[in-house]
Design a protein that fits this description.
Helix content is 25%, strand content 33%. The chain is of the alpha+beta class. It is a single-pass type I membrane protein.
């Protein structure tokens, strides 16, 4: 029979081995040697963010906004390659084996000849519930050669941070500004009403504007505008008598 000490030794070795395996799985990276087929030595893959453009430096994206990126594929060998699709997923940043979200694969089916290079454009959404959280972003490119040998190349495998987008006003901010504007209008109306009451109470009413009446007295006539020849002619001209019309001869 197996002694109890031997059983304890076997059990302890099993615990140590499982702990080492768990530590290797939680190192925060997806290793290409664990992928089916791995990457081809004749293919070169590059990755570049197009939105947000600063994500290439600070690895920061915005909640509620899409992530847009380019995948470059270069065939440096003598065989044709066919780029099948790109597989994208969000992983837990402390254990990349734990998937938070898997996206629909972006289908390409692009044939790349020897010494040729193509650029593939794709994007994924970022939901607002991921705001303020670090996420592991993994983008893997699937392709095969003319001999139907399958390859998987990890184009991107890093931790990104999801931040709030402050470029646009949200609904709460707009409603807050609207409430402040209404309160300001009500305060102005109340202040104006109060000032009017105070003015009436102290007799500070507006006086009617004085209209200038002129310098002439009532009953006097200004003859300056009448021509002098009319004033000198005291007698009014006699009206000319109408001339009698000649009677027309009756036919």
């Amino acid at each position: 029979m197996i002694s109890s000490k031997l059983l304890l030794a076997i059990f302890g070795f099993a615990l140590v081995f499982s702990a080492v395996r768990a530590e290797d799985a939680a190192d925060g990276e997806v290793h290409e040697e664990d992928e089916i087929g791995g990457a081809s030595k004749d293919a070169a893959v590059s990755f570049h963010f197009t939105y947000p453009i600063d994500a290439n430096v600070n690895k920061e994206v915005f909640a509620g906004k899409p992530i847009k990126f380019l995948i470059g594929f270069k065939n440096g060998g003598e065989k044709d390659f066919t780029v099948k699709f790109a597989e994208t997923s969000f992983r837990y940043h402390q254990d990349y084996n734990f998937h938070l979200q898997n996206f629909t694969a972006a289908q390409f089916n692009r044939k790349v000849g020897p010494k040729e290079e193509v650029t593939l454009d794709t994007s994924i959404p970022v939901f607002e519930q991921f705001s303020g959280r670090p996420l592991g972003l993994v983008v893997r490119l699937h392709y095969e050669d003319s001999d139907n040998q399958y390859f998987v190349h990890t184009a991107f495998n890093e931790t990104i941070t999801v931040a709030d987008d402050d470029s646009n006003y949200n609904t709460e901010t707009y409603f807050m500004y609207l409430v402040f504007a209404v309160i300001a209008v009500l305060l102005l109306m109340a202040s104006r009403s109060y000032l009017e009451k105070v003015t009436r109470k102290h007799g500070m009413t507006k006086r009617a504007p004085v209209v200038e009446q002129g310098t002439t007295k009532t009953g006097e006539v200004d003859f300056e505008w009448i021509p002098r020849d009319v004033l000198n002619n005291k007698k009014s001209p006699k009206p000319a008598s109408p001339k009698p019309k000649k009677a027309q001869n009756a036919e």
